[in-house]
Structure formats: structure tokens, C-alpha cells
């Protein structure tokens, strides 16, 4: 499963054996490169210390070297095929997985791939200008690594569209480069990918919360009975782990620097001392977490039930579940709003699959809170960060149209508006964070609002010159 870099499009799918497909993807490639140049990173560089996949195996799968950004070799990489793999859930549980798209599931599979594919270039567009304010070369390199891998994940979905969905798939692949994040006329499909990422605190939150949603969505597609999609997502998850690492450790470092300034100046109000107050970190957390929860869709979903029953999209770690993997007789408990209170009710488990996935995500998000609060404890700070209630600031699902406080109280619209700036970043909060965003491009130096990392990339020290201008 080594990757062939002698090809115009690096791949491990024997692309050269299908000349028609190869020509179609080579025709799409210049459009991708044009999109990268116009919508990708705005900061010009000579080269960046990037990792490039060289194999899809568990060991030794990546190579690190300084690479000019516009010469990065994006390609098509699928995890190794298991010839004995069987469908793990749904009505066809136990049957061989599919190597081609069943006609009756063509439209649904194409839609799932398009939605996933649309998120990949969207995040690159959202992060286009962040390099202009990078707090260190280490952070700048991590930003660019995330960007090039999101570009490769776009290639992963485009390959599937071209290879398995004919003319309709090729048209959808073209459209992935025609939509743009935040564009009023042609926005990205999902709301979170039309939000701004104007500063590095937002970037760390995005890579922690929103890329973590991506982990769970890819995890459900990895279970798919459509084996090429499953194998594609298997390898994407390997790359996605670094994106979440950037978010986790980025927030670690912001919290640490905030705690240092609080102790040094004996005050919670560290804004005058060039730091980001804990209250502002909490507001950014509230926003990005709530926006990311919307990506899971409605708590009750017939579409999710149909995808599961058909074998298109499973649950997180499906084969570890201790049930019949069919769920026709099972029930689940979800939150509902009844009058002026939030309560729970039982619904068929098949209808609650989005809720099930969201619950896995929430439990995972809590691990970050434990990390960050341990940092605060180490500095003797009693204030802790927390995840707001799942109903807070929601635009999708049962809480849409309701006003829920971070602590789970239903309140009036008037009271919500009065307190909005206490719970979500205010104009003043955003302006303060923006004021700190000044670039630091000298090796070994870092902006004063964030702590340096505990270690560098691939065994290199923090002082290493990760980016050449």
C-alpha cells in the first residue's frame, strides 16, 4: 500500500490502470491548484516543514521535509482492503461489503460524500489569513500542515465522486471548488463552515471542537458498507488526529499563559497585561462548542435511521457495541423541551442516531476540559472552564428557537439578549483578542499571550526554523 509519487497525481489506487478516470482527475487538478492559490494560505513562504504521507500502514506512514507549499503533492490514499470485511450493521448485516455503489443507494451516498467533501476546503478558506498573525513559526507550520491535509481530504472525496458516480459525481466535484466559506451567493453547505476564523484563539477552538466533529463524522462513514468510502475515511482519520492535537495543545498553551499572567499580576483581569482573560476563553469555548453541536443535526432523524438501516453510515465504533446492530427493537433517551422546562423522553433508537453520535462527541470534548482545568489547578486558580449545556446557542435540532443559558435554564428572548455578551464573545472581547494577534516569525520566539509548546515537531526543538520566507 505504498504511495506512488512518480505519478502526476500521487496515489495507491492504481490510477494509471483507469485512463478515463486518470484523465478526468488530471483535468480537475488545475482547478484545484487555482483554488489553492486564490483561497488557500495568503502568507507567501519559500517552504514549510511538512509531513507527507508515504504509506497507509500503521508504522512509518509519513515523511517530514521542507516543501514549497504550492509544490505539495496532494493525492489519493485509501487504507488497505480487507477481503473478508462484512457489513457490520443494518438490514444487510453479515453480507460482504460493496466495492461498487448499489443503484438504490446512489443518491444518498453521493450526498454524504459531497457534504463531507464540502467541509474540507471550507476550513482552508476560513483560515486563509491566519498566517499573517501567527504567534510563532511552530504554530505557523501547524496551521499550514492542517491546511494541506484538508486539501488532501478534499481530494479523497473528489476521487470517490469521479470514480463511482459518473457525470453527476464530476459535476459535484466541480461544485466543491465553486462554493466558498461565507459567500453570500454560494456559501458552504454547513453553517459552522461559513463562520469566520479571524484569530488564533478561534483557530485553536475550531481545531479542537469542529475538527473533532469531523473525527466523529468520518468515524461513522468508516463503518460504511461502501468499502472505498470506508477505506478512504480510515486513512483520513489518521491525518485528522494531528488537527485535533493542534487544538488541544493550543488551548493548553493559552490557558497556561493566562494562568501565568493571573498569578504574576494577582488579578483575573489580565487584558491590560497582554493576555486573554479566562472569561473570554470560556466565551470562545461556548461559541465554538455550540456551533459544532449543530453539525450533528436533529436529535431525531429519519435520514440517519435510513442511512443506518441501509448500511451507508454506522455508529461510532459500531463493532464494539453490545447490541444486535439492527436496533429495530431498541429505544433511546433524548432531551426534549416541554413548555418552560427541559426534560427527556424515550424514542426509537434508530431515530436517535444523531443524538447517539453527539453524546460520544460530548464525552470526548470533556477530556479537554479536564486537561485545561488541571493546568488551572496547578497554578492554584479556583475558576474552571466548563462545557455549556447542549441546548445553549443552538440553531439546529430541538433547541433551535429556544433560549437556553450555559447552565441549562430556559429563559426569555429578552433575558437572552441582555446576557448574550456574558456568554458569547462580545465586540470588545473580539477586538481585544484581535489586538494581540501580531506575527512572531523569529525562530524560538513566541507571542506573549500564549505559552510555547512542550516539544517541537518530529523531534525538532521549538527553536527550529519550521518555515522559510
UniProtKB/TrEMBL annotation:
Record GO biological process: phenylacetate catabolic process
InterPro entries tied to this protein: Aromatic_CoA_ox/epox, Benzoyl_CoA_Oase_BoxB, Ferritin-like_SF, RNR-like
Keyword Lyase: no
Gene Ontology cellular component annotations, sorted alphabetically: cytosol
Domain of life where this protein originates: Bacteria
UniProt-recorded Gene Ontology molecular function terms: dioxygenase activity
Keywords: Dioxygenase, Oxidoreductase
Name of the protein this chain belongs to: Benzoyl-CoA 2,3-dioxygenase component B
Species of the source: Pseudonocardia thermophila
